[in-house]
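chain below, 52 aa
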Amino acid sequence: MTKKPKATSADKLVVEALQILRDKKIDELPVVDNKNRPVGMLDVQDILDAGL
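prediction:
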């Protein structure tokens, strides 16, 4: 497990999250709230399924 994983917040655009996924060559990205607490996971498949 990574000590400081890259993350995104729910108020960020999907394109920003996709850029992190591409840059880091990962397929899942934690979603955190404004206090940096985890609230979910974004998977690259979620983006593809949404047709984005």
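The longest helix spans residues 14-24. Helices lie at 14-24, 44-49.
thats it, cya
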